[in-house]
Amino acid sequence: MKKWIAFTIVLVYSFSLLAGCSGGDSSSANNSNSNGGSGSTSSGNDNSASTPSTSDSGGSGNSAPANTPTPAYIPVERTVEVPDKPLDLSDDSIYFVVIDGVKFDLMDIRVKDFLDAGFFLDEDEDDEDYFDENTLVEANSTIGSTLIGTYLYKGDTYNYIFIVPVNLSDQKVPVKDCEIQQLMFNIRDSSAFDIYTVCNLSLGCTEEEVIGVFGDDYGELSDVVLTYSDDTGAFLDRYFSFYKNADGIIYEIQIFTNKRIIEDWEKNMFPR
What we know:
Layout: H1 2-21, H2 24-29, E1 96-99, E2 102-105, H3 111-116, E3 120-121, E4 136-137, E5 141-142, E6 150-153, E7 160-167, E8 173-174, E9 179-186, H4 187-190, E10 195-197, H5 207-214, E11 219-222, E12 225-229, E13 239-244, E14 250-256, H6 264-269
Antiparallel strand pairs: 1-2, 1-10, 3-6, 4-8, 5-7, 6-7, 7-9, 9-14, 11-12, 12-13, 13-14
């Protein structure tokens, strides 16, 4: 059930973000080209993105971000690549993001891949639940600075992406070696990054473009979110959620993998 705890936390946060974005952010998003979201001016070919370094050098030497104003969100034109038929949600290869030209395959990577690409954990040593990239995570556990999940910063702004690191092994491992259960980015908190996901879907794209990529068979937890789930079995599915404003502009994207803790009763009912 921990996936749904994490989802509920982010869902509540997303609704508060929608309220905050109903003014300036959504209006700037509406200025985007009908074919575009955020991101670079490249063609957006997924294979053109670079691969994270395999070295283990990033993150630990960075300090907390400076108090630099977040830049206004001005989507750069990006053409959404609409497939001939809706994407197959059971395909591992679609669960990725490209951030500042670096591709992160969420089914395969670890936290250290983000650190190697220049992200860092902004954890306050005075906090009761302080941790850093070398903190050991208990077997079959998640870690987070607020309940479940944490923020990854990059550069000298307060912008971040949200991730849920998870240790699915039967022994303790450092945070940097944890897998990724969930990743989230939005217009308010991630606008400093050039970021997009499968078929060039990105912040500022339209509801119609999302439906063009994934189809119209989606779940609606509310009237502001489109959720596309790989229905491989209860509690084992993975999914994309796209949060939209009143004009159908996407202001937040969440990607869940099936990298999550399975309770004993679930193992018996739904073996992997």
